[in-house]
Amino acid sequence: MTTLGNNGFILFCSLFLAGYLVHGATLYEYSATIECHKQPLDPQYGGGLIANPGFDKGIEAWKIDGHVKIEARESGGNKFIVAYNRTTPYSVSQSFHLKKGLYYAFSAWVQLSEGSDTVVAMIYNSAQKTVIIVGSVIAKSGCWSMIKGGLTVDHNAPSVLHFQSNNTKSELRVDSVSLKEFTKYEWQENRLKNIEKVRKRTLRVNVSNKDGKKIGGAKIKIQQRKLQFVIGCATPSSILMSESYQKWFVSRFTTAVFDNEMKWYYVEGLQGHENYSTPDAMLKFFEDHGIAVRGHTVLWGADNIQRWVKDLPPRQLLSESVRRMGSIMSRYAGKLVAWDVVNENLHHPLFEERLGKNASAMFYKIASSLDSKATMFLNEFNTLEHPGDMVSIPSKYVEKLQEIKAFPGNEELVIGIGLQGHFDSHPNIPYVRAVFDLLGETKMPIWLTELNVMPCSNQAYYLEEIMREAFAHPAVKGMMIWIGWKPDRCNEMCLLNYELQNSPSGDVVDKLFAEWKTTNLTGVTDKEGSFEVKVFHGDYEITFYNPNSGANVTKEVQVYDDKSETLHVSISL
């Protein structure tokens, strides 16, 4: 027999009463591709709201958008629509009605007749008179690329889907278009089902005596000590000065990242004058408390770097950058779990501009040789949080990742996908899931590295929604919350106030910690001496008690995700 414990029972009741356990909900299609295909795949969900999604009926339900001609064509048995003779970026469109409170998953396949360019799918909402970008991709000639994205709307309204490309010399071809609606309950049930699938594993305990005889009726108590999925937090050096803040931090998080204290400008503001005293002290504090640390960041080409670095000629910039890498990475090699190697280099390509297109790839090669134990991350903003930022859309992120891995010696390098996650006051949750789907196809580990939500009335609610999306997705392996608490202020999102009491966002984090942990679970072995239960991945302490003999044993067990169905743990009493 298995008991849920108080937190498990409360969670079940709350989900049931909230309507989350709705049966027969539409299954979300997590499938995606980052490869360019010879032929597009069929429309997801049969097209959903989209009429004539595979163009089996020619151009029916589709309209001319702008100064353009359109026609249906067929190639290799595949039917699609073509916009040609374009004098503006626009092409084809279709109208439908969108509803407030629903989640919309979008996908389509696009191709250009010549060259390559970013193709953007957008929806015009007539009630709000706004354009929402729902997805984009770098389209090419000779093969089909998949756009995947999504949206929500704040008002019921007639809406129009558009496809746009600035390469007006090229024909724009579109196929397999889909827009599927989900109720809030359906969306959340898909998350819950996925959590059961990807964050839990069956644990089977087998109890016998010293002679090998199976013991029925043995009492089992299971207590989780650590979650395998990483939930960490950022902190400035103020943590060294507040014992109360230290207690608050170490009682919750398994991983830390420093706000600025490892950055080049922090430890070497003046050329040749390094000072590592603060990051040294911070690292020692976290080591003493068994908390892992991410290295943020080795190099950064943003405008706020030191003036003396900006003014260096290319040859000296290279030598100073390599010296910087050797200095910080050799100092902390083997002590960190990850490094942000060249921070935000899609938005700030200083090193590529000054040193050549392979600059970052070379730096990742050097970094991996300096610290072979840590995961090297490509850390970028707006890939996840702002679909309208064309600099760092998922396909451009993938392009950069592939460029780095193509550099000699980097082919087998595991590069962590660092998605910062600085969200505004209205995060696009369906788009977030779609980005996880796409970047998950790289088979590289995804982390949210700087997660926060800008101050707004729904800050705590949106933080919870984003954290749930990340935890439910199999490609995501960790998330770091970005708060930067100081005694007199914090950056954008506070988990606690100046009296070190939880804010509503802090309450959300604590609630999810409790929900995603298997605690105070008890049971009794059956007549075969076995007890089986599904638990969250992580480190456990299991206590076995034989009421007949009074024998009592406690064992530490790691229940990790290794793709096998059941973990068998045997004990003799």
TrEMBL record:
InterPro entries: CenC_carb-bd, Galactose-bd-like_sf, GH, GH10, GH10_dom
Keyword Hydrolase: yes
The family this protein is said to belong to: Belongs to the glycosyl hydrolase 10 (cellulase F) family.
SUPFAM superfamilies, per database record: (Trans)glycosidases (SSF51445), Galactose-binding domain-like (SSF49785)
Keyword Ribosomal protein set for record: no
Keywords, ordered alphabetically: Carbohydrate metabolism, Hydrolase, Polysaccharide degradation, Repeat, Signal
Gene3D superfamilies: Galactose-binding domain-like (2.60.120.260), Glycosidases (3.20.20.80)
Domain (GH10) ranges: 221-512
Residues of the signal peptide: 1-24
Protein name: GH10 domain-containing protein
UniProt cross-references to Pfam families, sorted A to Z: CBM_4_9 (PF02018), Glyco_hydro_10 (PF00331)
